[in-house]
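Worked Example 4.2. Consider the chain below.
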Amino acid sequence: MSDIQLTPSAAKRVAAIAARQGKPAVLRLSVEGGGCSGFQYRFGLAESIEPDDAAVETDGVKLVVDSISLDLVRGSAVDYVEDLSGAAFKVQNPQAASGCGCGSSFSI
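Applying the procedure from the previous section yields the following structure tokens:
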């Protein structure tokens, strides 16, 4: 099992966004200090994969995480969810002790 996972739903969404923007289908997940619970997730399309990145591929789409952020999201799955509160990438992080209502920040 890899350190991180990208669900087929998330891979499909990344592929659509990347195609529309004419960029590679590579999603970067990073963790920054801040947010209402201590840490917050950041997503963006990556132009390249760095030497210290962990990478996983689903349906031709790559998810990359830098080595520092990986320690905070190890074992997580990145999903794309559409529900009544909107559509967004969500991180299912087994290390998170608590999170916020919006799902974009967490604490360990």
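The mean pLDDT is 86. The two ends are 22 Å apart (CA to CA). Compare this with Example 4.1 before moving on.
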